[in-house]
Each structure stands twice: as structure tokens, then as C-alpha cells.
Specification:
mainly beta, RmlC-like_jellyroll, 5-stranded antiparallel β-sheet, RmlC_Cupin_sf, 140 residues, 3% helix
Length: 140
């Protein structure tokens, strides 16, 4: 039988939570969607938007997470996944396998994506560079 005590119902409207600048990256803004609280920390879901033009990107890193997807809602972002340059555009969904080394190095001013990660308190670990990174394009 389904255990209904492990999680609780959640309904978060756009006015219930606001974009905040105290997330993982200072050049993005993050809006919590209430899923971490509803799942007792099993999963986090958050909207992420561009806040500042890309300068240095995220740096090479990996996440200690069992599950991680990014669904691009608007705009685009360029990632290096290991040594593969990947353009993620509006409508695309990326599953980042556990431990994949990656670097987000460029994005559009209107970039917005939904990020779903388990567990909610996943860790980000800096790693040695895998390869050279293309320079981001300037916003006009």
C-alpha cells in the first residue's frame, strides 16, 4: 500500500514564493516550488532564471545526487558535459546522470529552467577541468 505519510500535498502558486539570489550561483535567481518541504527533503524542484550576463560560468563541477533533470522553459544554455558541448534550448530535457562532470558556460538573457534534484540537499563538488571551455557571447 502507498505510504501517504512520507510526503504531503503541496500547491505553490507564483505569488507564494519569490525568486531569490541566495542560491547556488550568484548570477542566477531561484524560486522554490515547495517540493523539498512536501517530500521531506527527498526532492527539490526550483525555477532558475538568468540574473546577470555570463562571465566565467559555473566552473567544472559535479553533483552528489541520485537524480537530476533540467527542463529548459525559455531561452537556451550551453553546457559542457564531460568533453561534449551541449546546447539546451526551450523545450529540451536533460537528465544529468549521477556524478557527470559539467560546466554551464553560456546562456541567453531570457533563460529559465526547471530543475528537479534528489535529494533536496544535494552537494556540488568542484572538479578538475575536463577540457577547454568556449567563451560566452556578450549580451547586447
Amino acid at each position: 500500500m502507498l505510504d501517504r505519510t512520507a510526503t504531503k500535498f503541496s500547491h505553490v502558486k507564483p505569488t507564494d514564493t519569490h525568486f531569490r539570489s541566495d542560491g547556488l550561483r550568484d548570477f542566477f535567481l531561484y524560486r522554490d516550488l515547495g517540493i523539498a518541504e512536501a517530500t521531506n527533503g527527498k526532492v527539490i524542484a526550483q525555477l532558475v532564471i538568468a540574473n546577470n550576463a555570463p562571465e566565467k560560468g559555473t566552473g567544472w563541477h559535479r553533483h552528489e545526487a541520485e537524480f537530476h533533470i533540467v527542463i529548459m522553459l525559455r531561452g537556451w544554455a550551453k553546457f559542457m558535459y564531460e568533453d561534449q558541448e551541449t546546447l539546451v534550448s526551450a523545450g529540451d530535457c536533460v537528465h544529468q546522470r549521477p556524478g557527470v562532470r559539467h560546466f554551464l558556460f553560456d546562456y541567453s538573457p531570457d533563460m529559465e529552467y526547471l530543475e528537479v534534484v534528489g535529494p533536496a540537499d544535494f552537494k556540488t563538488i568542484d572538479v578538475d577541468p575536463v577540457c577547454d571551455i568556449p567563451a560566452p557571447k556578450a549580451w547586447f
